[in-house]
Amino acid sequence: MTPELTALTLAAILQIVQFILFALPANLELGTRYTGGSRDYAPDKPMSKRTARLQRALNNHFEGLILFGIAATVITVSDQSSTLTAACAYAYLIARILYIPAYAYGLNPWRSVIWAVGFMSTLIMLMVALF
Fold it and tell me: Which domains does the chain have, with CATH numbers?
């Protein structure tokens, strides 16, 4: 397996971990009657700031993972894996790991800086694939 696909697999596992990090407090705060229901209506009480941030970080990872998945797949399928693309793949993964506590604890502007590292890593991989 290429380093890019290894990083992609680890990023997918991170997505599962993020879901658990969000789901546990959300179930405690909102109750399983709401979270296990159809959610046709807003909950009786809002989530805490930290739990809401964990949800937004989870959603953000879904968005970033789509582009990173494309980049890792194209690099691998086109046999363009290199030291640069491997470094970018692991930079993306490390940035996504650091993004979780940065968002959960409201570490601004570091959250945005960390996000930008992951985004730029993906962009570089896509550019390498094209050129």
Answer: 3-39+47-130 (1.20.120.550)
